[in-house]
Amino acid sequence: MNEVLKRFEQLGIIPVVKIDDAKDAAPLAKALCEGGLPVAEVTFRTAAAEEAIRNMVEACPDMFVGAGTVLTTEQVDRAIAAGCKFIVSPGLNPKIVKYCIEKGIPITPGTSSPTDIEQAIELGLEAVKFFPAEASGGLAKIKAMAAPYVNMRFMPTGGISEKNLTSYLDFPKILACGGSWMVSEALINGGKFDEIKKLTREAVNTMLGFELKHVGINATSEEEADGVATSFEKLFGFTKNVGSSSIFAGSAIEVMKTPYLGAHGHIAIQTNYIERAIYHMELQGFEFDMDTAKYNGGKMVAVYLKGELGGFAVHLLQKK
After folding, report:
1. Which of 107, 234, 283, 290: CA 20 to 30 A from 68?
2. pLDDT of residue 61
3. Where do the domains of the chain lie?
4. Between 3.10.180.10, 1.10.10.10, 1.10.443.10, 2.60.40.10, what CATH number should domain 211-318 receive?
5. pLDDT, average across residues 300-306
6. Residue 49: phi, psi to the nearest 5?
7. Subunit structure, per the record (predicted)?
8. Active site residue 162
């Protein structure tokens, strides 16, 4: 998988934006970055698209900015000149795909049928856009079409919202989802960039689905751990369950038989997508101790953050 597709997968959500006035591009870019999604697909539906891409790149140099609704080779050239990192088109035009390949710019063309997918494979593509997603049959159609094409990945766009986002992303062949609910035309034209930032952060949180799983308490011995777990059982009816290294009281309290990470213990936070969560948390400046990572069947299921919060180590758990 090329680096652009890897970035799509890490991000999970690709905001699809239509900008009528290029002056809105810079504040929009900052709102998306501050909201946790340093990426945008700027559609060539308006005359402002090229300048908007340039303004975004200048305002936020590390932002992953691409061009969407690209229909001509001339638009490809303009997008590249403006500094875009990827191209997206609503349909699969072999001429445009070949031109992008020649130019060395990654392209994700739109598809909605097996015929489209087979053309994409013939052109050497690893991923395609599925558009318009909901109107074309949604996740059920993607699952049905994906079966024969074992190596193809999909980026559904059109009708994706916070309500159906994770149902799409749960399917392993979905690379990322394109969406515009956090960057609606009305919000952009109204200059409501604080609202865009808020909705963007909510979109990321919805995707990652963080939830408290359990709190771990460090005991100095197995006897002390048993006493603490027994107290929780007597007080609250949390059934005691003895394990090899710890004793659980219910599912939310874990008492370590010997001290582990964290001065007081640890806090376990579960997430929908652990590796995607790591990427987004690292964007905010947090670091992980990859020596603590645990795997099941080759997939990461747990890992600790570096450092402590309030005397507690914190680790992520992959939801089942």
Report:
1. 283
2. 97
3. 3-206, 211-318
4. 3.10.180.10
5. 98
6. -55, -50
7. Homotrimer.
8. no
